[in-house]
């Protein structure tokens, strides 16, 4: 190119060469970014021509020419600086896209032209020929420069177009940025969705009307003064009786503070909605609303969710701390939080759980206020009286507002409501004003201060289906009734509304349908629409409309068929279900009958379920399905969705003594055979898979009450329960993996292989799947644990200083606590409300399960580690054992407070018996049954060896004890009679055991196997378990909890029928004989004593005794040195005999009758001394017989050993049953024999 040649020329004027070089770079870059190739070539030719003019050399004597070129050099240097500045912009692309840069280029070109012109002028004083020649050259330069300017202007126009393109690119980039922000927002919403909030629980849901303008003004002013005063108390309790307008005031107040910009969040509780009456939903929902309102709070809460995705399922105290307190504290947000109708939440605690945890943290939130409404129920009153909450709570008693103010408010309310009716009804011909003052006064008086009464009156009169004045006269002409107080006051009004709505109707079918519809409305576990009711009951929607047409004064009935029907006030369902209040049987709702009707309707709907009802693609994960709730509503339908969630609860509450129960069982059986898998699929899509487990347990409760556990329905439901729990994580994430994975992996012998797999042609079975269900149902906790216990419907798992509470039905974790002290033992109250922990520092702590808060700490005096905890069946007493063999009994209050009342020493083992005040204590070979209230010992029983562990069967009044010297031997004791049976198991030693509700003893073997002994059938069976058993406990429905350090905590099924029964032996007495063998008396053949190998329990030798023996009361002892065996039996005449015989010989050594029956006896190793122990009513005595081996042991010495009765004044005193000094020598022989 020309410009390249000019630039490369060494003869070119150097400053111009620099300018040309810079222009060359810029123009080359421009050439790469714009489509102006021809124009650039012209610019290059002009520059080349200019370079030729200045290429001629200057002579040494031509000073003027040098000066002229020096001036030109200076100007060109300035241009070089400008061009260098432009070149430092890196690339001409950026330069060309900037209009100001294009102008700069144009300026450089113009400056170049001017400089050349000035140079031309300066040499005009030279020779004419030079001037003429230079003039021509200058003219050429000017023309070329002019052309360059025009070209530059063209470049500027092109650059301007590029700028427009850049603007478009900017707009597109901005739109992409907005899309990215939308994506980030959607991701954040998805994370916030893990809080599982109740979206319609806020005041925006409009569940309640607001106060009419001018009414309740004094109350609202009081509340707003509290809200606006930052120095006022942090908590406001609007306390009012039913019907006094608490929720209406809360709705109005929420709107007012929202308009003022100070409302942070709100939760309106309701017992009509399952998700709005669960206290566990309150704090996550409030946190969700706060996150939506405050960006700073949202950032904090997102960090919490990322750290702990299951934070919404934590205990209340952790929910409050992590979701509300910490984020609000770190962001310094000032707001008001509203919780309405707290009394309508399900809460079994003596003090409201929400208030209990709120009291712990409310002082940490100086800028946050809590507005709470609730009836003055006991738990609400107790909650607000808590020491931490009471000083900071402002209480407003709504039912104690000045009666004149309430009267005027109700009068104004009625006047406005009824005046509006007169204006809206063109067909109403009444006097003006209507209603008159007298009628208003009568209506106000009848309301007796209850706004619910006044609003029900207004709704009754304004019914669009009736003439309002006629209805008004029906009310005002009724005689006054002084019973218009509280709940009873509204009953006559409800009766009148119902009777007027259906007056003159004699058709029983109408009342039958009325009962079905009303029963469904008030008994539904979630509100239903007309469409849903029609599907469940099989009634036409139009008929439901007719039935509900006259009940708009007591029900909130929307015009749209798909919207939910709600009860106007909770007093109406209470009235309909109480025969003492609803005296007309036509309107009385029999609860169990209507639950049965709804159960039938729900099961009929479930028969229509089909696989993959939403037509989802194969293998899709539930979370990847967009708009899933809307899709389910469209494809499954609201009525069927309700049936899926609640059919089992309606079955549970159905009548038991009714032939319809059999029909219900038949329908449920058909459902489990044909549609249960599709039901599980829908529940997975609903994210309610846990409800499948709960529903089947509700069905089990129903069958248990009917005593039909052997039915096909029970086994079908049990199979589906095993199926759901075995594949729970998989099905929870993907409903369609029921067909792709879970069913093909089900055991070959299960019903799913034989029926469902054949029905679903798309399902292919896998090779190598198991033949039957294994014993393991579910793993609750993996890894190490220090202690575990079951109580109520919970499983507690302790590890060092942490304890986790899991749902025993579903296995889901519900609570996690980190305590300050190491946990050595755990237990809990039978109702599952309180957790007890025994600690290494000698303290016992009690914890509220619902809130996760500490209730009380009780410290033992000796400060030894608490190794064991046992709670009485009624939960009133707690026994704890420390490492120094002391047993302490503490009294437990309903709130979990602990008080020490009794203690006993030298106790190795203990457990509570059937009567809650009776405690069994093991001291070596002695078992004492103590009444800890009376402070007496009821029974003392002697065992063949010291006791290592004891458990009690609450249902069958039997005590099982394992003996230290015989780890494969167990004694079953009847505490009331003192009789016992000894069990031998040939398969090895057990480490832990427990009673099942079916009166079976479940033993954990050291090799990991589980032995199950049926006391009624007197036989053993075993269950395979691969790990050593470190903990074992039983649950209802043939389920056990097994703990192992290697496999963690697992739920196992006892209903495993394919395991062979091992050999077992029964005995009423036994003793060790020599290494590896024992001597025992079999109750089935008590004439003989048998020598048995302990490894196999096989018979080695049998010796027949002289007299026929009674196997219920006997003992054995052996002298190994001389192969002697001592037997003590009552003979056929009831006399007790001692028989000494040499084993493996048929010769009888001797026998002797005794004065009283000894409880135990021991031979000395040489066989020359016999010690017998005899229980008396007040004491325990020892008899010592001395004699030779060949002769009778006839020399006797008696010692009184033990007074088994503890001190009568037992409170805070020790119960010491240590033998006296005089008997120590007598016991030495016995103890040495016991080892």
From TrEMBL:
<dbReference type="InterPro" id="IPR036322">
    <property type="entry name" value="WD40_repeat_dom_sf"/>
</dbReference>
<dbReference type="InterPro" id="IPR001680">
    <property type="entry name" value="WD40_rpt"/>
</dbReference>
<dbReference type="InterPro" id="IPR059179">
    <property type="entry name" value="MLKL-like_MCAfunc"/>
</dbReference>
<dbReference type="Pfam" id="PF24883">
    <property type="entry name" value="NPHP3_N"/>
</dbReference>
<dbReference type="InterPro" id="IPR015943">
    <property type="entry name" value="WD40/YVTN_repeat-like_dom_sf"/>
</dbReference>
<keyword id="KW-0677">Repeat</keyword>
<feature type="domain" description="NACHT">
    <location>
        <begin position="234"/>
        <end position="380"/>
    </location>
</feature>
<protein>
    <recommendedName>
        <fullName>NACHT domain-containing protein</fullName>
    </recommendedName>
</protein>
<dbReference type="InterPro" id="IPR027417">
    <property type="entry name" value="P-loop_NTPase"/>
</dbReference>
<dbReference type="InterPro" id="IPR007111">
    <property type="entry name" value="NACHT_NTPase"/>
</dbReference>
<feature type="region of interest" description="Disordered">
    <location>
        <begin position="1199"/>
        <end position="1223"/>
    </location>
</feature>
<dbReference type="InterPro" id="IPR056884">
    <property type="entry name" value="NPHP3-like_N"/>
</dbReference>
């Amino acid at each position: 190119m020309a410009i390249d040649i000019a630039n490369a020329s060494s003869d070119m004027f150097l400053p111009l060469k620099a300018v040309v070089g810079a222009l060359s770079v810029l123009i080359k870059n421009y050439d790469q970014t714009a489509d102006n190739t021809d124009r650039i070539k012209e610019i290059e030719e002009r520059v080349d021509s200019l370079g030729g003019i200045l290429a001629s050399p200057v002579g040494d004597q031509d000073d003027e020419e040098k000066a002229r070129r020096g001036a030109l050099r200076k100007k060109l240097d300035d241009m070089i600086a400008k061009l260098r500045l432009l070149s430092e912009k890196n690339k001409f692309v950026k330069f060309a896209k900037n209009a100001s840069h294009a102008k700069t280029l144009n300026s450089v070109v113009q400056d170049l032209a001017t400089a050349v012109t000035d140079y031309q002028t300066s040499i005009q004083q030279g020779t004419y020929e030079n001037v003429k020649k230079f003039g021509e050259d200058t003219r050429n330069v000017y023309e070329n420069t002019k052309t360059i300017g025009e070209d530059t202007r063209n470049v500027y126009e092109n650059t301007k177009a590029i700028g427009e393109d850049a603007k478009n690119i900017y707009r597109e980039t901005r739109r992409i940025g907005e899309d990215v922000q939308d994506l980030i927002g959607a991701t954040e919403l998805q994370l916030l969705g893990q809080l599982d909030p109740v979206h319609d629980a806020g005041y925006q849901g409009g569940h309640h009307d607001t106060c009419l303008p001018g009414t309740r003004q004094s109350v609202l002013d009081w509340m707003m003064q509290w809200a606006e005063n930052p120095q006022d108390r942090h908590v406001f309790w609007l306390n009012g009786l039913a019907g006094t307008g608490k929720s209406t005031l809360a709705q109005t107040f929420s709107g007012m503070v929202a308009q003022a910009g100070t409302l942070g969040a709100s939760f309106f509780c309701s017992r009509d909605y399952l998700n709005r009456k669960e206290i566990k939903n309150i704090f996550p929902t409030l946190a969700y609303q706060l996150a939506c309102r405050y960006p700073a709070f949202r950032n904090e809460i997102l960090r919490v969710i990322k750290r702990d995705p299951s934070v919404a399922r934590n205990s209340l105290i952790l929910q409050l701390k992590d979701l509300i307190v910490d984020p609000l504290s770190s962001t310094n947000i000032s707001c008001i939080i509203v919780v309405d109708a707290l009394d309508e939440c399900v809460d079994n605690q003596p003090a409201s759980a929400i208030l209990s945890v709120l009291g712990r943290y409310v002082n940490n939130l100086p800028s946050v206020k809590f507005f709470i409404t609730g009836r003055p129920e006991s738990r609400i009153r107790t909650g607000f009286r808590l020491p931490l909450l009471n000083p900071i709570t402002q209480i407003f008693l709504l039912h104690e507002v000045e009666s004149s103010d309430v009267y005027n408010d109700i009068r104004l309310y009625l006047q406005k409501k009824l005046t509006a009716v007169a204006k809206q009804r063109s067909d109403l011909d009444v006097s003006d004003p209507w209603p008159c003052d007298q009628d208003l006064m009568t209506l106000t008086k009848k309301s007796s201060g209850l706004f619910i009464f006044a609003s029900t009156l207004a709704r009754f009169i304004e019914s669009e289906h009736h003439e309002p004045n006629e209805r008004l006269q029906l009310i005002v002409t009724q005689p006054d009734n002084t019973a218009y107080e509280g709940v009873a006051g509204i009953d006559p009004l409800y009766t009148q509304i119902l009777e007027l709505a259906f007056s003159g109707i004699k058709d029983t079918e109408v009342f039958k349908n009325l009962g079905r519809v009303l029963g469904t409305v008030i008994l539904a576990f979630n509100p239903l629409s007309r469409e849903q009711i029609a599907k469940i009951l099989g009634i036409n929607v139009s008929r439901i409309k007719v039935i509900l047409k006259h009940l708009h004064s007591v029900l909130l009935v929307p015009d749209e068929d798909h919207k939910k029907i709600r009860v106007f006030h909770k007093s109406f369902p209470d009235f309909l279900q109480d025969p003492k209040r609803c005296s007309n049987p036509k309107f009385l709702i029999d609860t169990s009958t209507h639950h049965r009707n709804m159960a039938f309707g729900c099961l009929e709907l479930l028969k229509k379920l089909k696989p993959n009802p939403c037509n989802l693609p194969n293998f899709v994960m539930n979370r990847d399905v967009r708009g899933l709730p809307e899709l389910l509503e469209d494809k499954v339908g609201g009525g069927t969705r309700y049936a899926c969630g609640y059919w089992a609860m309606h079955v549970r509450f159905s009548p038991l003594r009714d032939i319809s129960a059999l029909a219900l069982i038949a329908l449920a059986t058909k459902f489990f055979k044909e549609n249960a898998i599709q039901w599980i699929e829908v529940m997975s899509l609903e994210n309610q898979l846990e409800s499948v487990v709960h529903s089947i347990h509700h069905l089990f409760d129903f069958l248990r009450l009917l005593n039909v556990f052997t039915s096909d329905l029970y086994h079908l439901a049990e199979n589906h329960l095993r199926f759901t729990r075995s594949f729970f994580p998989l099905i929870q994430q993907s409903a369609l993996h029921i067909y792709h994975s879970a069913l093909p992996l089900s055991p070959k012998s299960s019903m799913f292989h034989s029926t469902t797999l054949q029905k679903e042609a798309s399902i292919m079975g896998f090779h190598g799947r198991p033949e039957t269900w294994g014993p393991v149902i579910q793993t609750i906790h993996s890894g190490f644990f220090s202690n575990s216990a079951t109580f109520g419907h919970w499983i507690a798992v302790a590890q060092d200083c942490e304890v986790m509470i899991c749902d025993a039905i579903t296995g889901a974790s519900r609570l996690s606590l980190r305590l300050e002290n190491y946990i050595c033992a755990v237990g809990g109250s039978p109702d599952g409300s309180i957790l007890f922990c025994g600690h290494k520092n000698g303290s016992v702590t009690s914890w509220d399960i619902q809130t996760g808060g500490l209730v009380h700490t009780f410290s033992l005096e000796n400060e030894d580690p608490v190794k064991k905890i046992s709670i009485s069946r009624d939960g009133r007493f707690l026994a704890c054992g420390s490492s120094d063999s002391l047993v302490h009994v503490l009294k437990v209050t309903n709130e979990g407070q602990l008080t020490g009342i009794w203690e006993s020493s030298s106790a190795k083992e203990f457990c509570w018996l059937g009567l809650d005040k009776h405690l069994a204590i093991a001291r070596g070979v002695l078992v004492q049954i103590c009444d800890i209230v009376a402070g007496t010992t009821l029974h003392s029983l002697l065992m063949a060896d010291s006791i290592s562990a004891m458990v009690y069967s609450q249902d069958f009044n039997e005590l099982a004890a394992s003996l230290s010297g015989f780890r494969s031997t167990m004694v079953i004791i009847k505490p009331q009679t003192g009789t016992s049976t000894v069990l031998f198991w040939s398969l090895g030693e057990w480490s832990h055991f427990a009673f099942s509700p079916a009166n079976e003893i479940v033993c954990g073997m050291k090799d990991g196997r589980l032995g199950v002994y049926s006391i009624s059938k007197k036989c053993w069976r075993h269950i395979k378990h691969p790990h050593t058993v470190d903990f074992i406990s039983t649950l209802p429905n043939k389920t056990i909890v097994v703990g192992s350090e290697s496999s963690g905590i697992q739920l196992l099924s006892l209903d495993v029928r394919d395991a062979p029964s091992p050999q077992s032996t029964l005995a009423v007495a036994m003793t060790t004989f020599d290494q590896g063998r024992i001597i025992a008396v079999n109750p089935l053949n008590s004439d003989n004593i048998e020598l048995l190998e302990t490894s196999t329990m096989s018979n080695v030798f049998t010796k027949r005794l002289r007299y026929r023996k009674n196997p219920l009361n006997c003992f054995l002892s052996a002298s190994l040195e001389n192969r002697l065996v001592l037997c003590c039996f009552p003979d056929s005449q009831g006399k007790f005999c001692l028989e000494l015989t040499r084993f493996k010989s048929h010769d009888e050594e001797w026998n002797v009758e005794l004065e009283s029956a000894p409880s135990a006896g021991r031979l000395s190793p040489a066989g020359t001394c016999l010690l017998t122990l005899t229980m008396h009513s007040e004491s325990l005595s020892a008899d010592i017989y001395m004699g030779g081996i060949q002769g009778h042991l006839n020399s006797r010495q008696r010692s009184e050993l033990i007074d088994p009765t503890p001190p009568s004044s037992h409170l805070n005193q020790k119960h010491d049953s240590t033998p006296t000094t005089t008997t120590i020598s007598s016991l030495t022989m016995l103890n040495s024999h016991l080892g």
